[in-house]
């Protein structure tokens, strides 16, 4: 067992964990933050995407011990003072989801990408989301949502 | 889907990592970005007893001007390289390829030291560094050595790294204004690994081709130079490219697998070598 201390959605946690515990399982089962999904567990689908120090990562491809001393944001920590993050609003308004399983990962990957490129074109948005699979929407409304959020935050 | 249990150590410095490797021997593995290692541990294709995490070594995360070359720290993340201005200016092929492999989340974690040390012949960066004739700085208990890319990749997933050695830096030449580059990766779906990849670094000279260095991804157990194409292009006119590229698969030994047959890979190597050299000549 190994002691870790990290911040998740602004709250500091300290826990003893097994080194082999994946971050996604720590979040879901340890902290009950079930907004972060497990889709493939093979590092491909992006359903488990969270922010590590503000950058998108796949939490099924990180051990919880590697997050020691770092800051994690999950979809449940995106809102501030009861207000949705503009990306959440944009997904809502553009109907950028159907079943919603991919949505937390989509939103976090998009939030991360707009920090790197605040004014992407459509092709760039599609490229940036290549590691996030959606089996429902056909991506059209997801791309529209990111375009709307880019307009608002730039 | 859950890795076999292991012990976890955090390296506080390169020397500490070397010491830990000495202590735990071949039961242990270094952990950099984890984006090759963790997937294979989850599948239980690897089950190291001890992981030695290099994640705290921020001092190995840099791009520096080395005069005629760039020095890239082993823990530099792919995404750092994709957005690095010095890399874009002097050795664009490295930044381009780092921004191409996997997806942004993979690039946020994966490191250049990790992808070279892993030595996967389907990896994109090994052939790019091979075409650049770059070198890899390795530190071990007896000090530091500099290994040419051509000597570093030895077999499928086998490199020249000794048991107690750590990659600390990668060196790539600064390309001058007469030198163009291209990396062409062919795969069926975005985010897939290369079915075949072609890295080309081409020097122009008085309207014709001065010299060309071409390395192929996934055409054998290691990155392979397309030597006969290189020879045919040396000093050749620009319109020699199509014919020269016909020998791109000479001396290669591609695998047949679920992604492509060996024969298809040979075809792809010829087609994409032509396109890569042509693109390199135009940029
Ligand atoms: C979904 C997905 C898609 C991907 N797509 C591509 C792709 O298209 N093209 C591509 O090239 N790659 C791809 N990758 C792999 C990615 O580039 C990895 O980041 C890279 O191969 C390994 O780097 P790492 O830092 O993650 O290494 P790790 O996984 O941490 O380590 C890999 C190996 O190298 C050793 N090692 C690591 N660092 C050092 C060091 N400094 N010195 C000595 N040994 C070391 C480790 O012990 C281990 O054996 C993909 C990965 C994923 C998960
Ligand atoms: S569950 Fe992590 S990428 Fe699919
Ligand atoms: S909305 Fe169902 S997977 Fe995307």
TrEMBL record, chain B:
**Entries under Pfam families matching the protein:** CO_deh_flav_C (PF03450), FAD_binding_5 (PF00941)
Which SUPFAM superfamilies does this one have?
Answer: CO dehydrogenase flavoprotein C-terminal domain-like, FAD-binding/transporter-associated domain-like
Q: Which UniProt keywords apply?
A: FAD, Flavoprotein, Oxidoreductase
Composition bias type Polar residues, residue spans: 249-259
Source organism's superkingdom? Bacteria
- Sequence ranges assigned to domain FAD-binding PCMH-type in this UniProt record: 1-177
Under InterPro entries, the record lists: CO_DH_flav_C (IPR005107), CO_DH_flav_C_dom_sf (IPR036683), Diverse_Substr_Oxidored (IPR051312), FAD-bd_PCMH (IPR016166), FAD-bd_PCMH-like_sf (IPR036318), FAD-bd_PCMH_sub1 (IPR016167), FAD-bd_PCMH_sub2 (IPR016169), Mopterin_DH_FAD-bd (IPR002346)
Keyword Iron-sulfur belongs to the record:
no
Q: Where is this region: Disordered?
A: 237-261
The GO terms this record gives for MF are:
FAD binding; oxidoreductase activity
Report the PANTHER family cross-referenced here.
XANTHINE DEHYDROGENASE SUBUNIT C-RELATED
Q: What is this protein called?
A: Xanthine dehydrogenase family protein subunit M
Q: Which organism is it from?
A: Rubrobacter marinus
């Amino acid at each position: 067992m190994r002691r870790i201390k990290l911040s998740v959605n602004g709250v500091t946690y300290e826990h003893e964990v097994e080194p082999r515990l994946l971050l996604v399982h720590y979040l879901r089962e340890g902290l009950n933050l079930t907004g972060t999904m497990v889709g493939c567990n093979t590092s491909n689908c992006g359903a488990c995407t969270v922010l590590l120090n503000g950058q998108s990562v796949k939490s099924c491809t990180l051990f919880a011990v590697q997050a020691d001393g770092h800051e994690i944001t999950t979809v449940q920590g995106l809102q501030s003072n009861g207000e949705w993050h503009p990306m959440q609003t944009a997904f809502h308004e553009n109907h950028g989801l159907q079943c919603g399983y991919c949505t937390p990962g989509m939103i976090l990957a998009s939030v991360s990408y707009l920090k790197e490129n605040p004014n992407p074109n459509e092709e760039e948005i599609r490229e940036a989301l290549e590691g996030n699979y959606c089996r429902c929407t056909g991506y059209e409304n997801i791309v529209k949502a990111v375009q709307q959020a880019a307009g608002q935050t730039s | 889907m859950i890795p076999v249990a292991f012990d976890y150590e955090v390296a506080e410095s390169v020397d500490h990592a070397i010491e830990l490797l000495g202590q735990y021997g071949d039961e242990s593995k270094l952990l950099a970005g984890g984006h090759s290692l963790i997937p294979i541990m989850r599948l239980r294709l690897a089950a190291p007893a001890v992981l030695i995490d290099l994640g705290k070594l921020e001092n190995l995360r840099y791009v520096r001007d080395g005069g005629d070359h760039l020095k890239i720290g082993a823990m530099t993340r792919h995404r750092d390289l994709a957005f690095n201005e010095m890399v874009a200016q002097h050795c664009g092929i490295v930044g381009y390829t780092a921004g191409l492999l996997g997806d942004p989340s993979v690039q946020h974690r994966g490191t250049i030291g990790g992808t070279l040390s892993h030595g996967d012949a389907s990896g994109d960066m090994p052939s790019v560094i091979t075409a650049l004739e770059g070198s890899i700085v390795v530190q071990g208990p007896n000090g530091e050595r500099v290994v040419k890319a051509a000597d570093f990749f030895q077999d499928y997933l086998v490199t020249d790294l000794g048991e107690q050695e750590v990659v600390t830096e990668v060196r790539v030449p600064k390309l001058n204004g007469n030198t163009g580059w291209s990396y062409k990766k062919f795969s069926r779906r975005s985010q897939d690994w290369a079915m075949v990849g072609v890295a080309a670094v081409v020097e122009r000279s008085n309207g014709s081709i001065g010299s060309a260095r071409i390395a192929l991804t996934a055409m054998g157990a290691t990155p392979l130079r397309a030597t006969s194409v290189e020879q045919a292009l040396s000093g050749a006119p620009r319109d020699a490219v199509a014919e020269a590229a016909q020998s791109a698969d000479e001396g290669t030994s591609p695998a047949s697998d679920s992604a492509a047959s060996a024969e298809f890979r040979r075809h792809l190597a010829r087609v994409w070598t032509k396109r890569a050299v042509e693109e390199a000549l135009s940029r």
